[in-house]
Write a structure and sequence with these properties.
Elements: E1 4-7, H1 14-22, E2 35-36, E3 40-42, H2 45-49, H3 54-61, E4 66-72, E5 92-97, H4 106-116, E6 120-123, H5 132-140, H6 148-157
Parallel strand pairs: 1-3, 1-4, 4-5, 5-6
Antiparallel strand pairs: 2-3
Length: about 170
């Protein structure tokens, strides 16, 4: 299973998503520091909200197999700039939480994630577990294995290890 790094604004649902992925009962926990277990790395929202801490997000991404931008469907604004993937050297996915919110604007949040460079976008409801199976299936997919020669060839083309090379 891929190790997933979660980043996003405070109250976006990162810790609840971690609990849902583990099959735990949801309970509020304020993430005070970056926590890591076998399957996930959960970061405080303040890391994404402050330029002083945002460099830490790039550093933590190196410990993961995939990076997820977590944004609630009712987000009032976007924290992540277009082409965010330029500093993330892992597959980048988007996770939209709180899809049942009466203030949800899923098309707008989806566009923000597309603009950031997300390869795939998952719609999740942490409470009902809607979308969790699809995300778990993605995390269970095998990572590509490359020889040193293949990696060097991809690097010379400017391609990542997971992109198709033509």
């Amino acid at each position: 299973m891929k190790k997933l790094f979660l980043m996003g604004r405070s109250e976006a649902g990162k810790t609840s998503l971690t609990q849902a992925l583990r099959g735990e009962e949801l309970h509020y926990v304020k993430t005070q520091y970056t926590s890591s277990d076998d399957d996930t790395i959960d970061s405080p929202g303040e890391y994404a909200e402050s330029k002083h801490f945002s460099a830490g997000l790039a550093c933590f991404s190196f410990e993961a197999d995939a990076v997820a931008i977590v944004q609630a469907a009712d987000e009032p604004y976007n924290l992540f700039s277009p082409s965010l993937r330029s500093f993330i050297l892992r597959p980048l996915i988007g996770i939209i939480t709180k899809i049942d919110s009466p203030f949800a604007n899923i098309p707008m949040v989806r566009q923000w994630l597309v603009n950031a460079g997300c390869d795939r976008i998952f719609l999740i409801n942490n409470v009902t577990r809607e979308g969790i199976d699809e995300l778990m299936a993605y995390l269970a997919e095998d990572l590509p294995r490359l020889t040193l020669g293949e990696a060097m060839h991809r690097q010379s083309l400017g391609a990542s290890e997971w992109e198709e090379v033509f």
